[in-house]
Amino acid sequence: MSEVTLRQVIRDWLAVNYTDAVRNSTEGSEIRKAWYTKLADKGWIAPHWPKQYGGADFNFQEHIALQQEFTSAGVIALPGYSGQGLNMIGPTLLEYGTDDQKARHLPGIARGEVQWCQGYSEPGSGSDLASLSTSAVLDGDHYVLNGQKIWTSDAHEADWIYVLVRTDPKAKKHDGISMVLVDINQPGVTIKPILLISGSSPFCETFFDDAIASDLIGKPNHGWTIGKRLLQHERSGIAGMGASGAAAAPTGKPHYHLAELAKQYVGAAGGRISDAVLRDEIIQHRFNQRSLQTTLARTRAENVTGVTLGFATSIFKAVGANQSKAETELQVRIMGAQGTGWEGESFSPQEIGATRNWLSRRAISIAGGTNEVQLNIIAKRVLGLPD
Ligand SMILES: Cc1cc2nc3c(=O)[nH]c(=O)nc-3n(C[C@H](O)[C@H](O)[C@H](O)COP(=O)(O)OP(=O)(O)OC[C@H]3O[C@@H](n4cnc5c(N)ncnc54)[C@H](O)[C@@H]3O)c2cc1C
Fold first, then answer.
1. Whose CA is nearest to atom 38 of ligand 1?
2. pLDDT at 301 over 80
3. Residues enclosing ligand 1, CB less than 6 A?
4. Where among 221, 249, 282 does a domain terminate?
5. Which of the two residues, 266 and 80, has the higher pLDDT score?
6. Residue 210 is part of which domain span?
7. Residue 367: partners with Cβ closer than 8 Å, 6 or more residues away
8. Are residues 136 and 98 part of one domain?
9. Count of Cβ atoms closer than 10 Å to residue 260 Cβ
10. How many structural domains does the chain have?
11. Tens digits of per-residue pLDDT, 308-356?
12. Which tens digit of pLDDT belongs to each residue from 109-118?
């Protein structure tokens, strides 16, 4: 099918299926679930994955065409698009998993039905991740885990967790690590949510007490390479968030969001934002976003898998994280005093949401490896500077 025909097919399908009822539905409602089922049946939740695992076998151009048509139609109801299953463990399994592991784990992700979370960080191991100490010991045909992870995003809502564990305590720290998959719904796993300044609890502490791992990915003690690869997927995703301009926008049209907001809060004259300095700032911000967007698109197009991988992801991650933060900062600044709302009737839900969004975005330059760690990787691996 030509790209032109594919775009028309997608538009026609959206005109019939992305109804106002779906657009206005809430997460968890029957209408929303039925919409996800329709998407999954088309293979359009993971369009770039093979059909046998629930995808649509789309190549890079077809995938981009789908995303663009969805964006143009203002589709905002998407399951797991930023999910750890689709963007992190899924592609890692496609690269390193056995056929059996792919067949068992990928279709649930591609249908948006199985949620995953990441068990990397520990109380004593963050930037120095390779010092992790959660242990996994082989017992018959499975591994038994003991230890603690922390900052496990969305663990309270997840079904499965992929975990970096120490399988050889005698080996050098990078060499004794493996990646295993653990079903969260078992007695050996305890999840405790952590309350954040933004008012929500997306983070958890995760405890393993003789928990059973169902799978080990790749070979035992080769988990560091696989874990790093997964981080490249994560960093590429964070960069994409910074490039999309969706950090602050509640609608499907992020590109105009800050300008519209400025007209609303600061005022407009002749259709333009009346504050010339602010106008310049918004334009400069949009330029930065477009530069990152086009650079990301170019590097993705150069890669047959359609994702930006390799050490260069650290550049994109650091730039994207800074841009995400800048966007939400600009948003609350535009709102002035109304951008400092926490609660109460003098603030709209959108204003309160903006404050919380700004606070939670502060963490994006820490998640997935801090900006300082990205700069270390760039210095060492991209520029080849001495340690
Ligand atoms: C929003 C968010 C979501 C997260 N989700 C998850 C998750 O789902 N699963 C998970 O496992 N973890 C998660 N994390 C944890 C995250 O990976 C760690 O916070 C991060 O790796 C930093 O580790 P740390 O917090 O222990 O800080 P530390 O490693 O203690 O670092 C403290 C400070 O020292 C600096 N620093 C440390 N080492 C160096 C160095 N060598 N050179 C220069 N500076 C250095 C750091 O940049 C930082 O500023 C999440 C974090 C955030 C903020």
1. 127
2. no
3. 117-121, 126-127, 149, 151-153, 363, 366-367, 369-370, 372-373, 376
4. 221
5. 266
6. 116-221
7. 153, 238, 321
8. no
9. 15
10. 3
11. 578 889 999 999 999 999 999 999 999 999 999 988 999 998 899 899 8
12. 999 889 999 9
Domain assignment of residue 362, yes or no: yes
Residue with tokens 């305890």: 190
DSSP strands (E only) in the chain: 116-119, 135-139, 142-149, 160-166, 177-183, 189-194, 203-217, 268-269, 272-273
Instruction: Tell me: do 88 and 162 sit in the same domain.
Output: no
The active-site residue, picked from 62, 234, 281, 327, is 234
Q: Which amino acid type is present at position 98?
A: T
The helix/strand/coil state of 216 is strand
Does this model's pTM top 0.85? My answer is yes
The residue whose C-alpha atom lies closest to atom 16 belonging to ligand 1 is 367
Pocket test for ligand 1, best of 205, 228, 366 (most atoms within 8 A of CB): 366
Do the domain assignments include residue 133? yes
Q: Please check whether residues 83 and 135 belong to one and the same domain.
A: no
Let me know if residue 210 belongs to a domain.
Answer: yes
pLDDT at res. 221: 97
Q: What is the pLDDT of residue 251?
A: 47
Higher pLDDT, 362 or 120: 120
User: 126: CA distance to ligand 1 center in Å?
Assistant: 5
In this prediction, residue 372 carries a pLDDT of 97
Which of 121, 132, 177 for a ligand 1 pocket mutation test, highest count of atoms within 8 Å of Cβ?
121
- Whether residue 234 lies in the annotated active site: yes
Greatest alpha-carbon pair distance for the chain in Å reads 75
In the predicted model, is pLDDT for residue 101 greater than 50? yes
* Ramachandran sector of residue 132 (left: φ over 0; alpha: ψ -120 to 50; beta: rest): beta
CA distance 362 to 380: 26
80 has pLDDT over 90: no
The closest-lying atom of ligand 1 relative to the alpha carbon of residue 117 is: 8
